[in-house]
Design a protein that fits this description.
heterotrimer; A: 302 residues; 69% helix; elongated; C: 320 residues; mainly alpha; 2 domains; 0% strand; binds adenosine-5'-triphosphate; binds magnesium ion; transport (chain A); MetI-like (chain A); transmembrane helix (chain A)
Chain lengths: 302, 310, 320
């Protein structure tokens, strides 16, 4: 046997990063101009919205001022006022902040549930998997929106938290299914078998061996889910079953358009919020799609 | 007391089907296999694809559920994967066929090789690093590689990492399932020779699974030949290669290509003779279902699957 | 195939039972019960108690559940608290409206999606394809209610091309041609608004199917042999892509249900979705649970139907 180190051809470059990981995702975004612009836009929006709302007082903005109702945009109120004389621009800032925050919260809660269930289901397979997938099938066909609305009306201590929990409990299925199918593939790989022979417990294998290999797919799905969840939250708020008026979200502002008068003649109240949601969702989706391409080697651009 | 003893091992896989996805039958991947290993020796398991070699190896180490039969390691029953026997299993390790999928791509070499150490032994970070570096040195890789990821190594190097990981717990028995079949031919010999070298150094016992008789001949002291989940013949290397009894073994041995070009013609004719004999006497060696009979001893070490006569 | 269908039915039945249990539990959690709709609150409490006993409202929950299911199966969904009329009667006309709306939406969806998908797949990477892909990108991101609001605002209010509310102009006699045209006119914009969004997934599916097909050997062979390429092509695409798409309609139902709540609210269209929302606001919970039950069963049956049709047209699906 040759005793010299068979190591010559391993270049000691800067490649001490895990492969197909965060670095690839990042590279794809930088290569994709639209996604890059979207990302910058998102970061700026977040900074702006979270920064400014630090100085704005939510309670002040949502206080009714009957002497200033339905004003068109003017110097004092950049985007006019609503039927309670409240500053639309201020509500827009706070609404964006609230929408983003709740979107992130719901994405994290539902994502965690979905990932846990999918991982367990796919890793163990068999009866556990069968039962879990029947459950997913069932939740998928439920008229989710309506059930959420019913829940929202009958829950007694209604708050941001209970609202997030209600939303999350009907939004974990997609990611559970995805993670499950990936975990099913992953568990057949020899590194999982090897871990078993090396004495690692199933729990340890699932979370320290399999989960890291799903990280990029999780990032992608969570990003796309974030966009979807912001949409769902604003939809619920639009119908009047999301945030209370004292905690405006973007959907709350748009909901004023349920009044035909407002819809037709007072565009400044709802249109900016509608456009803002469109832009936010497009931007997040752009980033998500670029990330998705990055996880699929065939579609990668660079 | 044998070092490792496998007694009448059966591993069946259910075939699902029918209305409610119930079990409608079984694939008898391993069907009544018995053999024993001697410490410090290499035992070869040969057979064509699907004959149940891998399943046998995986059942011994606990990756498959054993349907019936027993696996005794140094006299202790390790058949079921219970926590009680888990500690015994650190004496048995495995080298996997595919050097690409058997190393977690997201882990550094340090974490890969230290995984078994973290499960069974309590070391400080420093000690652990030192041990991993020693292991790397042992398998002929540079100790500086510990912070690299698997994709930065070649196939042969990865297989060495796999070996280092298997050696971490100082096992006594290593099950190597086609350890070199995924490697370039030029690298195969390197890895095999290196495996023999550490065998002498560490007094290892190998269960070597392969369908390549050349490799088996090169490496093994004892050999078992499997066909459709059963043993057809077992013996020492000499017995199998110079005096095969079962018609199936004869055919396998005859199929080994001869390097000497002058012998080719002769070998070709010999191979044809064996093939003819195989066709003619197939029914004498296999039962109605085409399975091998149970083993009969024809010497101390040599056993052949023949029908019971008288 | 029969095996698949029967096995699929064995999944459907528990789904419906589970759905009904969930709705029953929700209904129990909702304030008010069947009596709330029937009597005047100023009546003597003892008399109320007597009434409760008579109506079986003091029975254990499983007896009540059984009664409720028995009623529902026979078409008795209870009384509306607000309108003091049987829920079934209240729902009937709304259901018909929503049915037409959904049907027209589906028709629009396929009429738009199929040509767009085929164009974008066959001539991929042309400017036309890029425009269509751009549309799917935006359509994928845009929430339905925002699209619908913009549609109403622009085409309804600003240009005045379409009515902005109701399901038919008042004062027309049912059965006449004007009546029919008015109905249709009221359906067009809402159905189109929803279709703009539901089209997206179908266009994307069709586009990638066609691009995949293009690379397949038999198309290349046919091309090499000089066979009329478009014939081979069309037949293949029809068999492998269009039939499955046609079968997807059942899966679309759950999307349409969610959509109908938004669309009917925005267009003030008297259908099930709006009825649901109004009833929630009015706390008319017997109506609420009935609507959820009907929509839920519709979605379950839709998925069942699509699964069965797909298993016939595309055997690959059956494996799952
Ligand atoms: N998990 C499983 N489920 C069902 N059948 C299996 C499973 N694993 C193996 N089998 C079947 O058991 C039989 C023996 O397989 P095994 O992998 O042990 O063969 P092998 O001798 O290692 O073949 P090869 O040389 O191809 O690796 C085969 O028929 C295989 O299809
Ligand atoms: Mg094998």
């Amino acid at each position: 046997m040759e005793t010299n180190k068979v190591n010559a051809d391993v270049q000691a470059s800067d490649q001490v990063r895990s492969p197909s990981g965060v670095s690839i995702l990042w590279r794809e975004i930088v290569r994709d101009k639209v996604a890059l612009v979207s990302l910058i836009l998102l970061v700026l929006t977040c900074l702006f919205v979270y920064g400014i709302s630090f100085f704005l007082k939510q309670s002040e903005i949502v206080t009714v001022d009957l002497f200033a109702i339905h004003q068109a945009p003017n110097e004092q109120f950049l985007l006019g006022t609503d039927y309670g004389g409240r500053d639309v621009f201020g509500q827009l800032i706070i609404g964006t902040r609230n929408s983003l925050s709740i979107g992130i919260l719901v994405t994290i809660i539902s994502g965690t549930v979905g990932i846990l269930l999918g991982l367990i289901s796919g890793y163990f397979g068999g009866h556990i998997d069968n039962a879990a997938m029947r459950l997913v099938d069932f939740f998928m066909v439920l008229p989710t929106l309506m059930i959420v609305i019913v829940f929202v009306t009958i829950v007694s201590d209604y708050s941001i938290w209970s609202f997030s929990l209600i939303m999350s409990s009907f939004l974990w299925m997609g990611i559970a299914r995805l993670i499950r199918s990936k975990a099913l593939q992953e568990r057949e790989l020899d590194y999982v078998q090897a871990s078993k022979t090396l004495g690692s417990s199933n729990f340890k294998i699932m979370f320290t061996q399999v989960l890291p290999n799903l990280s990029s797919i999780i990032i992608v799905t969570m990003t796309l889910n974030l966009a979807a969840n912001i949409g769902i939250e604003s939809g619920l708020s639009f119908l009047g079953f999301g945030f209370p008026e004292s905690t405006p979200s973007l959907g709350t502002l748009i909901s004023y358009a349920r009044n035909p008068q407002t819809l037709e003649f007072r565009w400044w109240i709802w249109l900016p919020a509608a456009i803002l949601i469109l832009i936010l969702m497009l931007a997040i989706n752009n980033v998500g799609q670029a990330l998705k391409r990055a996880t699929d080697a065939r579609q990668r651009r660079g | 007391m044998a070092f490792l003893e496998v007694k009448d091992l059966q591993v069946y896989f259910p075939i699902k089907g029918g209305f409610f996805n119930r079990t409608v039958g079984h694939i008898k991947a391993v069907d009544g296999v018995s053999f024993s290993l001697e410490q410090g020796k290499t035992y070869g398991l040969v057979g064509e694809s699907g004959s149940g070699k891998s399943t046998t190896g995986r059942a011994i180490i606990g990756l498959e559920n054993v349907t019936s039969g027993q696996v005794l390691f140094e006299g202790k029953d390790i058949t079921s994967m219970k926590s009680k026997t888990k500690d015994l299993r650190k004496d048995i390790q495995m080298i996997f066929q595919d050097p690409y999928s058997s190393l977690n791509p997201k882990k550094r070499v340090l974490d890969i090789i230290a995984e078994p150490l973290r499960n069974f032994e309590n070391h400080s970070k420093q000690e652990e690093k030192k041990q991993v570096q020693d292991l790397l040195e042992l398998v002929g890789l540079s100790p500086e590689s510990i912070f690299k990821y698997p994709h930065q190594f070649s196939g042969g190097q990865r297989q060495r990492i796999g070996v280092a990981r298997a050696l971490a717990l100082k096992p006594k028995l290593i099950i190597a399932d086609e350890p070199v079949s995924a490697l370039d031919v030029s690298v195969q010999a390197q890895v095999l020779n290196f495996m023999r070298e550490i065998q002498d150094q560490l007094n290892l016992t190998y269960l070597l699974i392969s369908h390549d008789l050349g490799i088996i001949k090169h490496m093994c002291d004892h050999i078992g030949i499997m066909y459709k989940g059963r043993y057809v013949e077992e013996g020492t290397k000499d017995e199998i290669f110079t005096n095969p009894h079962h018609i199936y073994s004869k055919r396998l041995v005859a199929a080994i290509p001869d390097i000497n070009p002058r012998m080719r013609e002769k070998q070709y004719r010999y191979r044809q003779e064996v093939q003819e004999e195989y066709n003619q006497s197939y029914n004498d060696y296999f039962d109605q279902e085409g399975l091998a009979y149970s083993l009969q001893s024809i010497s101390d070490t040599h056993k052949v699957a023949l029908p019971k006569r008288g | 195939m029969w095996k698949f269908i029967v096995r699929r039915l064995f999944v459907t039945f528990p789904q419906i039972v589970l759905l009904s249990i969930i709705i029953f539990i929700l209904a129990q959690m909702m304030p008010g019960d069947a009596l709330t709709g029937l009597i005047d609150p100023n009546i003597d409490p003892a008399a109320i108690e007597q009434q409760r006993e008579r109506l079986g409202l003091n029975n254990p929950w499983y007896v009540q559940y059984a009664d409720w299911v028995k009623g529902a199966v026979q078409g008795d969904l209870g009384q509306s608290f607000r309108y003091k009329m049987p829920v079934t009667e209240l729902i009937e006309q709304r259901m018909i409206n929503t049915f037409w709306l959904s049907l027209l939406t589906l028709i629009f969806t396929y009429v738009m999606a199929i040509p767009l998908g085929i164009i974008s797949g066959r001539w991929n990477d042309t400017w036309l394809d890029r425009a269509i892909t751009g549309y799917t990108y935006i359509g994928f991101a845009a929430p339905l209610f925002i699209t619908a609001l913009l549609m109403v605002w622009i085409f309804g209010f600003h240009f005045g091309w379409f009515p902005t509310g109701g399901s038919v102009a008042p004062g027309l006699t049912p059965g006449t041609f004007e009546y029919f045209m008015s109905k249709l006119q009221h359906l067009l914009l809402p159905a189109f608004s929803m279709a703009v969004i539901t089209t997206v997934s179908t266009v994307q599916y069709l586009r990638s199917e066609i691009i995949d097909t293009k690379q397949k050997d038999f198309i290349i062979t046919a091309r090499a042999k000089g066979a009329p390429e478009s014939r081979v092509y069309n037949r293949h695409i029809f068999r492998n892509s269009l039939l499955p798409i046609a079968a997807f309609f059942g899966y679309e139902i759950s999307g349409l249900i969610g959509g109908s709540v938004f669309i009917e609210t925005i267009f003030a269209f008297p259908g099930m979705g709006k009825l649901f929302l109004d009833s929630v606001l009015l706390r008319d919970f017997s109506v609420v649970s009935s609507v959820v039950l009907i929509f839920g069963i519709a979605a379950i049956l839709g998925a069942l139907l699509s699964d069965i049709i797909l298993s016939i047209v595309d055997p690959r699906i059956r494996i799952k």
